[in-house]
Amino acid sequence: MRAMPYDLVIIGSGPGGYSAAVRAGQYGLKTALIEKDPKLGGTCLHVGCIPTKALLHTAEVWQHFVHSADEGIECENPRLNYPRVIDRKNKIVAKHAKGVEFLMRKNKVDWLKGYGTVRGPGQVELREEGGGVRILDTKNILLATGSAARMLPGLEADSQSILTNVEILDLTAVPKTLGIIGAGAVGVEFASIFQRFGTRVTLLEMLPRIVPVEDEEISRELERVFKRSGIRVETGARVENVRRADGCVRFSAALATGKQEDFEVEKLLVAVGRKPNTENLGLERTRVELERGFVKVDADQRTAEPGIYAIGDIVAGTPQLAHVAAMEGMVAVAHIAGMPARPVNKDRIPGVTYTEPGIGSVGLTEAQARAANFKVKVGKFPMAANSRATILGSHDGFVKVVADERYGEILGVHIIGPSGFELIGEAVAAMEAEATIETMRSAIHAHPTLYEALGEAFNAVYGLAINA
Ligand code: NAD
After folding, report:
1. Is 1's pLDDT higher than 60?
2. DSSP label of 107
3. Cis before 448? omega within 30
4. Any ligand 1 atom below 6 A from CB of 239
């Protein structure tokens, strides 16, 4: 006998899928969450955001030990116990996976273990580990299957030498040398982690600048600081002929200078983007439309097949970020439950990159604002003039505000500096509330704080910063 139909079956338990499941439970929808992996949480929790930032935190603490003499602390022979570092990272992940399980129970969501595919509108097939197959009837389906690391053509990752974001998290020792192909968020974050652990890092990017989605000045500043810290950065580089050798990886690269150079590294991280998990999902049995593998959706996250929604990394046109997936989940579930929700506004999506210095940005870059014919005015404030940054011994970077002169509209804010990824919150809130530069100039920024640099940058739009 078939069970009562679900209101919603969600496939994939990453931040998009599990957050949507919680919200569906809060709205009283009868909900199931399907996950193929043994634990809930997806890429972000198990092999993405959380373990990476756990390692980054340890790298930062380690740096404090290495440079403790600068603070007047004598600390002889500090030693990095890398297996313990990995163990700590694993404990953080395990704790949060338990937290997600708790949230499912609390919100009366059925966690179904196995591989889910769409059988057609209103039907999901669940293949359980033991070989059993169940057919679930449901009024709505939410696709939240995420993405997987892209590889260079002809290469495959292994746990020894050629790595993706997955394998690099479980190295048993800090490598002496690391090559990184791709200087997007994954590439620069791992460059930042391993440089601080003492690895000689070579970062190769095919485009003319690192973190190419950021404002050009942010890319320049990060490259400057990376180079100063000893990371070799090669932009405009074409990597060729990657091959495993005895205990190392060899490749050659055509560099921007026109020179061809051979490289040998202990480990090679390939960080050239992620492909959407939309194959083997049964979508060919539906009217769901794809665009280069990504699912096309409307503002309510509806696909072209009524009753089927999509969110997160598989969606065409929004960046592959955990917080975007989660918000798209809120929009989809609200639509299903007949509750109000504002569609995701692509101009107000924060980007956060956990390098040292950290990056946080939202809205248009200066170049994008000029291309869109705004009457652009820029306010910039250097972290070197922020007292809290000096106290922290971390005064590289700046806050840059891109505004429209006509009405003082905030078009974008770009931060590189200590905790830049945290500071961006103020700018996101300001833009969501449609605050003008004038409003933000009147907001009192406490002293001494890092976020004072934002207050100064808003003032700098009119040439009125105090400390620079
Ligand atoms: P990405 O698309 O952000 O960056 C990939 C980079 O690799 C690009 O700069 C691209 O030009 C370069 N590239 C591609 N092919 C190359 C080649 N053959 N040689 C040299 N360079 C090449 O992808 P990613 O860094 O793998 O990250 C994947 C997704 O995950 C992104 O959407 C990213 O924003 C997201 N992510 C976010 C965070 C964060 O929010 N902190 C952290 C990690 C990943």
Report:
1. no
2. T
3. yes
4. yes
Instruction: Looking at the structure, tell me whether residues 263 and 279 fall in a common domain.
Output: no
Q: How far apart are CA 359 and CA 452, in angstroms?
A: 16
Residues 189 and 317 in one domain: no
| 288-322 tens-digit pLDDT | 999 999 999 999 999 999 999 999 999 999 999 99
Q: Which residues contact 255 (CB under 8 A, 6 or more apart)?
A: 234, 236, 237, 261
Looking at the fold, whether 180 and 34 belong to one and the same domain comes out as: no
Quick check: is 414 catalytic? Answer: no
The CB of 211 under 6 Å from ligand 1? The reply is no
Whether residue 154 lies inside any domain: the answer is: no
N-to-C CA span, the chain: 73
Atom 7 of ligand 1: nearest residue by CA position: 182
If you search the block for the tokens 């209101």, which residue do you land on? 7
Which atom of ligand 1 is nearest the CA belonging to 187? 25
Residue 293, domain extent: 3-148+275-344
- The helix (H) or strand (E) run that includes residue 329 is helix 322-337
Cα-Cα-Cα-Cα torsion 309, 311, 317, 321, nearest 10 degrees, comes to 180
- Looking at the structure of the chain, the number of domains it has is 3
Confirm whether pTM is higher than 0.90: yes
Q: Which of 55, 216, 272, 320 to mutate to test the pocket of ligand 1 (most atoms within 8 A of CB)?
A: 272
Q: How far is CA 440 from the centre of its chain?
A: 27
| Domain end position, chosen among 288, 322, 344 | 344
- Residue 157 contacts by C-beta under 8 Å, 6 or more apart in sequence? 149, 151, 163, 164, 166, 167, 270
| Confidence bin at 2 (pLDDT 50/70/90) | low
455 ligand 1 Cβ < 6 A: no
pLDDT digits (tens, 9 = 90+) for 321-337: 999 999 999 999 999 99
Instruction: Give one DSSP letter per residue of 85-128, joined into a string.
Output: HHHHHHHHHHHHHHHHHHHHHHTT-EEEESEEEEEETTEEEEE-
Q: Is the CB of 272 under 6 A from ligand 1?
A: yes
State mean pLDDT over 73-100.
Answer: 96
426: CA distance to ligand 1 center in Å?
A: 26
Percentage with pLDDT > 90 across the chain: 97
* Model pLDDT for residues 198-241, shown as the tens digit of each residue: 999 999 999 999 999 999 999 999 999 999 999 999 999 999 99
What does the pLDDT look like over 341-371, one tens digit per residue? Answer: 999 999 999 999 999 999 999 999 999 999 9
Same domain assignment for residues 118 and 204? no
HSE, side-chain direction, 13 A CA sphere, residue 118: 29
Would you give the DSSP letter of residue 228? Answer: H
